[in-house]
């Protein structure tokens, strides 16, 4: 039976007083596919109540199938969405008017014989035709757009003044994105940037919008649940993630045994074993028919040893009589060629390039050792670090990339920090300036990303 039919029948049975049973939304189909993937993982791996949660999680992450909402596939713990639902917002309600996939484009229904286009869209006032928008008259007041004025990450937002101190010049990546967005609107909207100097916390800037003293905020403003209770955000337009940067320390091993380091102990033992095995196999085949492989036991042992290692430089002088032994030697010569090439490349790298490794590799190391960590002043990162388990006394705030670099170089033992936590756009700016000696390590924690803020519509 069709899933939609079964869903409507069950919904009607559980809610007999409701008329007009809705069709399952895309979110409901995702939830159904997720539950199905969990059941499939349990069944495939014979999971019991004593099975560790990590094992079950790994089984779910490896599950791939064609579900009701399209291809179900998880990557980095997130569903790789292949189908998007197009929603028509009507007041406080919503209705599905179509779907979009990269392969098929826009279509009306999730069916094999789907019809192109969207269903009828209703506009405010129950209009079936799209409104023209509005034109701001020359006498109307432009939108007041607040821009945080601070120094440290000018690539994102920078506020400067002309020499006469009359006009404000606002630049940066966030400003470019907002200007491009406003230019692509189908109607003209006048707006002016208003710098705001108190950037100790961005919540104070958002309060201006909440209290209707401003119309919008444009800048490196992070989307969070608490902030969305007061103001509305656009979709994020930057990387969504929180990571950490640590110092790279130089690691150089120039001991007399460095020539042994390109290969592991197991590979050394295995290689030596195959050297002797190859020499022994060739001796077994040749000594009955080839006089060069005969002699006293010690002479024959020497031939085995010498023949095996002479293949390293392809200088063995013994003439082989058997085609079988020639085949063994040909195969072994190819193996030796690959082994020596890999060894030479690894040893050259060790001798000519300095080795680097991070001073800290995980958040657990920082928590276990009680290290100091840094964050950006005025951001929500401090809250997330406290949620991870860091004590307030171990959190130090900084404002510029230069302060980041100085604190990392000092280290936690000398009044600095062992790691800097910040959102990915800031860390990429830091690495673009200090590309040597630092690296991003550990997992990336997903946050809201940057978004433009505006007043909430109250119905």
TrEMBL record:
Membrane-traversing stretches: 258-285, 297-315, 327-345
Superkingdom per UniProt: Eukaryota
Presence of the UniProt keyword Methyltransferase in the record: no
Ion transport among keywords: yes
InterPro entries in UniProt: ANF_lig-bd_rcpt (IPR001828), Glu/Gly-bd (IPR019594), Ionotropic_Glu_rcpt (IPR015683), Iontro_rcpt_C (IPR001320), Peripla_BP_I (IPR028082)
Cellular component, GO annotation: membrane
Annotated Ionotropic glutamate receptor C-terminal domain residues: 144-459
Keyword line: Glycoprotein, Ion channel, Ion transport, Ligand-gated ion channel, Membrane, Receptor, Transmembrane, Transmembrane helix, Transport
Main location: membrane
Gene Ontology molecular functions: ligand-gated monoatomic ion channel activity
Membrane topology: Multi-pass membrane protein
Cellular location(s): Membrane
PANTHER family referenced in this protein's UniProt entry, alphabetically: IONOTROPIC GLUTAMATE RECEPTOR (PTHR18966)
Protein's recorded name: Ionotropic glutamate receptor C-terminal domain-containing protein
């Amino acid at each position: 039976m069709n899933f939609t039919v079964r869903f409507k029948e069950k919904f009607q049975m559980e809610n007999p007083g409701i008329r007009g049973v809705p069709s399952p939304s895309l979110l409901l189909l995702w939830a159904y596919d997720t539950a199905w993937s969990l059941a499939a993982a349990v069944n495939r791996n014979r999971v019991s109540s004593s099975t560790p949660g990590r094992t079950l999680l790994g089984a779910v992450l490896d599950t791939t199938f064609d579900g009701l909402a399209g291809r179900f596939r998880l990557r980095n713990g997130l569903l790789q969405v292949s189908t998007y639902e197009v929603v028509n917002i009507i007041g406080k309600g919503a209705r599905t008017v179509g779907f979009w996939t990269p392969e098929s484009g826009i279509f009306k229904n999730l069916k094999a014989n789907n019809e192109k286009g969207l269903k009828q869209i209703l506009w405010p006032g129950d209009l079936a035709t799209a409104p023209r928008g509005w034109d701001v008259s020359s006498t109307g007041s432009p939108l007041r757009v607040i821009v945080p004025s601070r120094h440290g990450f000018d690539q994102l937002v920078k506020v400067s003044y002309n020499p006469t101190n009359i006009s404000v010049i606002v630049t940066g990546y966030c400003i470019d994105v907002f200007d491009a967005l406003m230019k692509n609107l189908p109607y003209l909207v006048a707006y002016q940037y208003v710098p705001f100097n108190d950037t100790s916390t961005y919540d104070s800037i958002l309060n201006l919008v909440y209290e209707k003293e401003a119309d919008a905020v444009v800048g490196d403003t992070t989307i969070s649940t608490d902030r969305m209770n007061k103001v509305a955000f656009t979709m994020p337009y930057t990387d969504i993630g929180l990571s950490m940067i640590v110092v790279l320390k130089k690691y150089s091993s120039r001991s007399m045994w460095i020539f042994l380091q390109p290969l592991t102990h197991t590979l050394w033992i295995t290689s030596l074993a195959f050297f002797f095995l190859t020499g022994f196999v060739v001796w077994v085949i040749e000594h009955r028919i080839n006089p060069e492989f005969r002699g006293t036991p010690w002479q024959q042992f020497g031939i085995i040893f010498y023949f095996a290692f002479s293949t390293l430089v392809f200088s063995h002088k013994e003439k082989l009589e058997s085609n079988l032994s020639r085949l063994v030697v040909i195969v072994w010569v190819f193996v030796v060629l690959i082994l020596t090439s890999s060894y030479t490349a690894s040893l050259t790298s060790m001798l000519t390039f300095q080795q680097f490794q991070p001073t800290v590799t995980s958040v657990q190391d920082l928590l276990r050792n009680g290290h100091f960590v840094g964050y950006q002043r005025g951001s929500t990162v401090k809250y997330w670090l406290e949620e991870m388990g860091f004590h307030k006394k171990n959190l130090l705030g900084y404002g510029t990339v230069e302060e980041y670099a100085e604190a990392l170089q000092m280290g936690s033992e000398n009044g600095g920090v062992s790691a800097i936590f910040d959102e990915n756009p800031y860390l990429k700016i830091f690495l673009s300036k200090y590309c040597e000696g630092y690296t991003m390590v550990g997992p990336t924690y997903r946050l809201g990303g940057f978004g433009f803020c505006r007043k909430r519509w109250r119905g």
